[in-house]
């Protein structure tokens, strides 16, 4: 089931780009010097967002190096927030780590 926020989000997507990262690689970037998160199977380097995130640094750090899709959706981010996301996009999540697992 596609949520409203996901539909808005998907409508603003850039073309998928290389490189492809595994969840293990994402998990290595979990501190303030290098902070990555996954949203809807896409990888974002949000290091530069930390100090200016309107919801604060802590809420992002709690999700650093993980799939933050559910917490991101739960906070009810605005279309404005979603429009900011593209600038942090760095690549795709490896197929077998995606929300709809390969083979299922
Ligand atoms: C690329 C990633 C993110 C961007 C661009 C972003 C952007 C924003 C923006 C612009 C706001 C201001 C309110 C709005 O316009 O919706 C906001 C608020 C907030 N964000 Fe994020 N955010 C991101 C990731 C996250 C994550 C991973 C969490 C984890 C829980 C989070 C939690 C919050 C919270 C708690 C607020 C405050 C909501 C409130 O007090 O009304 N954000 N964010």
TrEMBL record:
Coiled-coil residue windows: none
Gene3D superfamilies listed in its UniProt record: Cytochrome b5-like heme/steroid binding domain (3.10.120.10)
Keyword Heme attributed: yes
Keywords per UniProt: Heme, Iron, Metal-binding
Domain Cytochrome b5 heme-binding positions: 18-94
Keyword Metal-binding: yes
Family to which the UniProt record says this protein belongs: Belongs to the cytochrome b5 family.
Protein name: Cytochrome b5 heme-binding domain-containing protein
Organism the protein comes from: Tegillarca granosa
Highest classification ranks of the organism: Eukaryota, Metazoa, Spiralia, Lophotrochozoa, Mollusca
